[in-house]
Design goal:
Elements (H helix, E strand, L loop, with lengths): L1 E6 L3 H12 L4 E5 L12 E2 L1 H9 L3 H7 L1 E3 L23 E3 L2 H14 L3 E4 L3 E6 L4 E5 L4 E9 L6 H6 L5 E2 L4 E8 L4 H11 L7 E6 L2 E7 L13 H12 L6 E10 L2 E3 L4 E2 L2 E3 L5 E2 L7 H21 L9 H23 L4 H13 L3 H12 L22 E2 L2 E2 L9 E5 L13 E5 L9 E4 L5 E4 L3 H12 L5
Parallel strand pairs: 1-2, 1-9, 2-6, 9-17, 21-22
Antiparallel strand pairs: 3-5, 4-5, 7-8, 8-9, 10-15, 11-13, 11-14, 12-13, 15-18, 16-17, 19-20, 21-23, 23-24
Helix pairs in contact: 1-4, 1-8, 8-9
Length: 475
């Protein structure tokens, strides 16, 4: 019997598997595809996901394969410089193909001892008071204490649970693919710049070697969006918008996506949970989808591990839904807004011009960038210090830096007073007595996901707060 079965071997499922293995949880990842996909669905990591990788000691691997870009210009493609004073030590977006992200996360999960089985499609499940039974397409039945559906927007797990997925259906479709072009790069750049003056959902981006990532509005809605478009469809739509098809040929892959926005009614049903696109789907505007899923896994992993390992306080696992569903709702809201701002219609274009003017105000620009990069997320932990519920950025310490101390996925008390204690929770919380010029509070208690659970210098107050997140004291 497994502790946790993860259905879906994309970035969300692989990140979750790694987080669970850090806590010694016996985890199995089931991925229905026999081989990793060649489709590059997402192109980068936003600031909060970069921080997540840094907190787990993975960032170096990603930096080796990625390219750093300025943070600005992401909200609906409105070209503004990065805002000043963004609350992070990682002031960039990391351009990296999802195929590489998937590979690096799979390597990490395997290193930590997760088992990944490819070509294994989940087709049925049932649960009781003691666990979950997963049925595979080949008739195999597997048993686990918990199961997490990380199996995408068409999630089989969500459907089997009967969880509602309300929202708005697709209104417009976009074609996406990688292919070669037969005209000079200068010609491509000139034509694209002209078309994008009115059609913001159009673009050709060079990958090198004559290969381009092509994005162009589709003609209407396909009856079945799981069926990829043809190269001829791309050529036809390129001619409609650009007056030329650029001589595109030799496609690597072709796909289509819609602008549907849907949010699962609940993230947990008994011993089965949902994460990533299985829980929420939205347009890719702003590049938030992959990042949102990774951050779901980062929130859920330590909580589910605490439940498996027997020390989770009451309500901890349910806090996953309470914290992450509102974040997803906000992403759905801002992607809806961005899609409207990308419209070539006169009304949305007027709103876009007005918003562009407003973004010249530093506060507006920063507010929108904090949404896209998720550094503005604050969970509701009740009344208290302004840091409470927010993630703490990496800060320098007298002996190193904060994120270097979080690689093991444990709670952490950063104590600048040297007088506090986590006796009774030392198996779950590290006590670091050190000082930082970047932190103007006496001490902070961080959850394993880096969010601030307590601020202060009073030992009694700390003892009242520790059980809320880390269960009962031992010894």
């Amino acid at each position: 019997m497994f502790d946790v079965i993860v259905a879906g071997g994309g970035p969300t499922g692989l990140m979750l598997a790694s987080e669970l293995r850090l806590q010694g949880v016996h985890v199995l990842v089931l991925e229905k595809e026999a081989e990793p996909t060649g489709y590059v669905r997402a192109l980068g990591l936003h600031v909060r996901s970069i921080e997540v990788m840094d907190q787990r000691g993975l960032l170096g691997r990603f930096l080796e394969h990625g390219r750093q870009h300025p943070v600005g210009g992401f909200f609906a493609g409105i070209d503004k410089p990065a805002p000043d004073r963004l609350d992070t030590a990682h002031y960039y977006v990391l351009g990296i193909p999802q195929t590489t992200t998937d590979r690096l996360l799979a390597e990490r999960a395997t290193e930590l001892g997760a088992e990944i089985r490819r070509g294994c499609e989940l087709v049925g499940l049932s649960q009781d008071d003691h666990g979950v039974t997963a049925e595979l397409a080949d008739g195999t039945r597997l048993r686990s204490r918990y199961l997490v559906g990380c199996d995408g927007g068409r999630s089989t797990v969500r459907k089997l649970l009967g969880v509602g997925f309300p929202g708005e259906p697709t209104r417009v479709e976009t074609l996406l693919g990688e292919m070669e072009v037969a005209v000079p790069p200068e010609t491509v750049a000139t034509v694209v710049a002209e078309v994008r003056k009115t059609h913001k959902r159009f673009g050709l981006g060079p990958f090198g070697g004559g290969v381009y990532r092509v994005v162009v509005p589709a003609e209407g809605l396909a009856e079945d969006r799981s069926v990829p478009p043809t190269l001829e469809e791309f050529k036809r739509q390129l001619r409609v918008f650009a007056g030329t098809d650029f001589g595109v040929h030799s496609p690597r892959w072709l796909s289509r996506f819609g602008d549907a926005t849907r949010l699962a009614e609940r993230y947990r049903t008994g011993r089965v949970l949902l994460a990533g696109d299985a829980a929420h789907t939205h347009p890719p505007t702003g590049g938030q989808g992959l990042n949102l899923g990774i951050q779901d896994a980062f929130n859920l992993g330590w909580k589910l591990a605490a439940e498996v390992n027997g020390w989770a306080p009451e309500g901890l696992l349910d806090s996953y839904h309470a914290e992450r569903r509102p974040v997803a709702a906000d992403v759905l809201n801002n992607t809806r807004a961005q899609m409207e701002l990308l419209s070539p219609e006169p009304g949305p274009r007027s709103v876009r011009r007005l918003l562009s003017e407003l973004m010249d105000f530093e506060e507006v620009n920063r507010y929108l960038i904090e949404k896209l990069t998720a550094v503005g997320v604050r969970y509701d932990f009740g009344e208290g210090h302004e840091l409470l519920g927010r993630r703490l950025r990496d800060v320098g310490l007298k002996r190193g830096r904060l994120y270097e101390l979080m690689h093991g996925g444990r709670g952490l008390l950063l104590d600048q007073t040297g007088r506090l204690s986590v006796a009774g929770w030392a198996d779950r919380v590290d006590h670091v007595a050190d000082v930082s010029e970047d932190l103007d509070v006496p001490a902070v208690l961080l959850r394993p996901d880096g969010h601030v659970a307590w601020v202060g210098d009073d030992q009694r107050d700390l003892l009242d707060r520790l059980p809320r997140w880390f269960g009962a004291a031992v010894g």
